[in-house]
Every structure is written in structure tokens, then in C-alpha cells.
Amino acid sequence: MINPKLTPKQKALAINLDPDIYGTFAEIGAGQETVRHFFRAGGASQTIAKAMSAYDKDFSDAIYGKEAKNRYVTQNRLRKMLRYEVSLIEERLSRENNPGRKFFSYANTVTTINFDKTMKGHGWVGLRFQLDEKEDYSEIVFHVKFNENDTTLQQETLGGLGVNLIYGAFNYADNPRRLIESLYDDISTDNVEIDMIDFSGPAFTYVDNRLMSLQLVKNGMTDAVIFNPQGNNMLPADILYKKNIFAVRGSFRPVTLVNIDMFEKGLEMFMKDSECSIDEKEVLFEITISNLRASGDIDERDFLDRVDVLAKLGYTVIISNFSEYFRLIDYFANYTSGEIGVAMGVNNLLDVFDENYYKNLSGGILEAFGKFFRKGMTVYLYPYKDPENHEMLTSSNLKVSDNLKELYKYFKLNERIVDIKNYNPNFSEIYSREILNKIANHESGWEKQVPEDVAMMIKERGMFGYKEELKLKQFS
User: Fold this and answer.
1) Whether 103 contacts 129, CB under 8 Å
2) Residue 383 reports pLDDT greater than 90
3) What is the CATH number of the domain that holds 320?
4) Rounded CA separation 75/193 (Å)
5) What number of other Cβ atoms are within 10 A of residue 407's Cβ?
6) What is the pLDDT at residue 99?
7) Cβ atoms 220, 306 nearer than 8 A
8) Do 148 and 14 share a structural domain?
9) 20 to 30 Å CA-CA from 126: which of 264, 334, 396, 443?
10) Over the range 253-273, which residues count as b (16 or more CB within 10 Å of their CB) and which as e?
């Protein structure tokens, strides 16, 4: 029998009735929406040490310090709030007089929808807490984007999220996947998006935040998540805002010399065409959820193998649910008006020109093209050598359906589709599926078709079905 989900009031009451949970609430920008649940539930005197809203910026600065560029809705501000409030509890309450107490600090810094409804609102929400009085503090921090078009509704959603976070931290810390799912208890994923989350501290020693990011996309809580080569979850708005974006999509199972050649030669052309500096660009390697699910349920070990290889090469990774390319470009356009470049192979471009992909769009393929071939967007096309007839396919000789030929010519003539001409012809017969089969079947020769560091990593860690002991037996 499945236990029914508790309402925010029931969750708040459960926390209030636990004599050992005790802490503060600091909420900025959208009212004290979380703490009111605890006040209304009853028994709050045993839980709430203090509730405050340092709404005025000058007063907030006096408490937590000033922020760079006067930005208050930031992760840095939130973490300052959490740590400052916990330090006050520790300073003002004696552990000897409060045995067994597990202290916490909940905080949010949020801006809701503006009067003109041109900005829907977003914010940071977090909790710093103990699972044992002798344990150091752990933290859960996440970023939200509101989708509702009413301030009151956004405030109510924020209050529910806060209650779910506090209840989840004290009840599901040993199961962070369940904790993430519980954030949406009594809340629709249509109302709010969580596009970045971070777990830290002793309660989450063995948590890989990249897997937690994957849960957000997998559960429909966001469309895409990004993490850097160090494995840190990044806020999309922070790294994409006003940047020139260059992206490469692939399975990267494993990364091959073709992937690297396509990326490097495409990026070289993009940098020249966009006339941007290194600081003005962002490069992303994209893996879609549909690709991760290609063989059934998502294999988390396989997922980590792919992103670990990309991280080894120093690349930033985006995981998305964008099966169609136009959705990826539309996503980038929400953050930047700069140039956008996508490197892809011939087969991928043929998929872009396949009308079957757009049956669910009211405007069909024309609607998709309107979003995909938007101003400032260019496809950098990598050639493909047909393994059967050995013909090299480029933008000049690939065949699209008859009714799309003129449209294709239009995009090509206007240089929205350009060939990567300085590619390495020695890589033209490298096919990732063949490499994967060789690795799994313990055949030799694949090592020369992937970057040297990647080959070493696959062998050392037994990635993609590689087993060192079986390989040794093969050659003994």
C-alpha cells in the first residue's frame, strides 16, 4: 500500500511536534510564506527560534553584508543568510541547556513576477541543518523559476516548497532522490521549475550532484541542467546570459576523434564568424534524456562514465529533454541574443529536415524552423562517409525531401548551414557504434580512434563494458 502524501500543514505539524528540531526562518522578497505554515499548524514554539524578513536592502546589508553589483537574489546571498543565522543560534543558545537539539536555518531570497508581467520571477531556496546535535551542518540549496502569472500564487508555491524542503531534509536525507521528488508534493511541475540543486555536508557525503541534476530533468522538474568539468551544478542563467553559445550534441559513448574534430573545427569557424572573445563564448556538450534512455531505463553508471570522460577533456555538459534541435536553440535564446552555433553531422541535419519530427507542432516544420534557424544561429556541418558506398556526404549532396528542397537551398545560400571543410579525412571511417562493440567484445584497435586520455580512462575504470581481466585472458 502506498502511503498518501502529506499536505504542507501535516508536514509542518510533524516538524513542530518533534522536540529536537529547532531553527530560524529568514525570507526575503516574497513575504514569510514558508514560516506561516508552521505558525498555522500549531506547536510552533518548539520549532521556531526566530522568523524574519530583512526586506529593506540597507537593513539586509547591515545584517548579511553587501553584495557585488547590488544583486540580492543570488546563491551567494542565500548561503550567507543560512550560515549567518545558524551562527547566531550557536552563539546564543547553549548546547548544555539544549541537549539533543538539531539546529537548522531555512532561507530564501526571491523576486516574484513584476507588475508588467515581463519577468516571471525566480529565486534561491535553501536549508542548513543537522541530523544529529554532534554532527556538522549539511546544506541543500536550489534555484527556482516561477511559471505562474500571479504574485499570490507564486508566494503560495514558494511556501509549499519551503515546507517540503524542511520536511524532506529531516525525513529523507538518506534517500536524496526521494527528497527531490518530495519537493513537488502538493505542487504541480507546471507551476515552478527547479533548474539547479546542490547537496553538501556530512548527510550527503556519498551524493553525486550530477546524478541529482539528472533527477531534475528525468522527473520533468526542468528542461535542462548544466555542470562544469569539476562536476559542480551550474545555474544556466549564470553561464549562458548574453553569451555566444556553441554546442555539440552526441551520445559520447565514448567520445571519439570524430567528436573532437567536429567540435574543434566547428568552434574555430564559429569564433571567426561571431567575432567574439573567449570570455564572450560558452561551449556545451549536450546529451539528451532520450539518448540516455535509448536502451531502456537510464543507466546511471553509464551516464557518469560519459560525463566523466567529457569532464576529463575539460568540457561543460548540458543534460536536456530536448529531443528536437529547435527546442535546444529556443532554450538558448531565452538567455542570450548573441550568436548560436551548433556542430552536427549530416545524419543529424537530415533528422532536422524530417517532417515526422514535428507532427505535434501546430505550425509543423515551419514553426520548428522559425525557432531553429533564428537570427544569429548557424549549423556547422561535419561530413559523413557512407560505410556502404564510401560517398562523402556534405551540405552540397545530401538529399532532403522534394517539398523541402527550396527551403533547404534558402538556408544554405544564406549561410545558415555551412560545411566544416578543414576536417581531418583520416577520421572519416570512425563510427562510435563500432568502437563500442569493440570495447564490449574486447577487440583491439579502438584505442586509436578515441583521444589517448579517453582510452586510458576507459581501461582504468572499466567503462562501456571494458573488462581488463577478460582482455588479459584474450591475449594470454
Assistant:
1) yes
2) yes
3) 3.40.50
4) 16
5) 16
6) 86
7) no
8) yes
9) 334
10) bbbbbbbbbbbebbbebbbee
Q: What are the angstrom distances between the C-alpha of 31 and each of 81, 112, 215?
A: 16, 10, 29
Rounded to an integer, what distance in angstroms lies between the CA atom of residue 348 and that of residue 331?
19
Question: Alpha-carbon distance 104 to 86, whole Å?
Answer: 7
Section 342-359 average pLDDT: 92
Paired residues of 393 in beta bridges: 384
Average pLDDT, the chain: 91
C-alpha cell at 90: 550557536
Cis peptide bond prior to 8, omega within 30° of 0: no
- Give alpha helix (H) positions in 361-419: 364-372, 405-413
What's the CA gap between 287 and 217, in Å, rounded?
Answer: 12
- With residue 295 as reference, give the H or E element that holds it: none
Q: Are 83 and 76 in contact (CB under 8 A)?
A: no
- How far is it, in rounded angstroms, from Cα 15 to Cα 41? 10
Give how many domains the chain has, as a whole number: 3
Range of the domain at 452: 432-474
Q: Is pLDDT larger for residue 475 or for residue 274?
A: 274
| 28 grid coordinates | 526575503
- In the prediction, which pLDDT does 137 show? 98
Element (H, E) at 105: strand 102-112
Beta bridge partners of residue 345, listed in sequence order: 382
Query: H-helix or E-strand containing 42?
Result: none
**Per-residue pLDDT tens digits for 329-338:** 999 999 999 9
Side chain identity at residue 290, one-letter code: S
β-strands 121-129, 48-52: how paired?
unpaired
Phi and psi, residue 137, nearest 5°: -80, 145
Residue 156 and residue 33 in contact, taking contact as beta carbons nearer than 8 Å: yes
Max CA distance (Å), the chain: 82
Nearest Cα residue to 341 out of 433, 452, 266, 435: 266
Q: Do residues 254 and 331 both lie within one domain? A: yes
Rounded mean pLDDT, 57-70: 83
Provide Rg for the chain, Cα atoms. 26
Are residues 161 and 102 located together in one domain of the fold? yes
- Give the pLDDT confidence score for residue 468 in this predicted structure: 58
**pLDDT for residue 106 is more than 90:** yes
Query: 356 and 450 in one domain?
Result: no
Q: For the stretch 277-291, what's the b/e string if a residue is b when 16 or more beta carbons lie within 10 angstroms of its beta carbon? A: eeeebbbbbbbbbeb
Three cell numbers written together for 361: 507542432
Q: What DSSP string runs through 304-344?
A: HHHHHHHHHTT-EEEEE---SHHHHHHHHHTT-SS-EEEEE
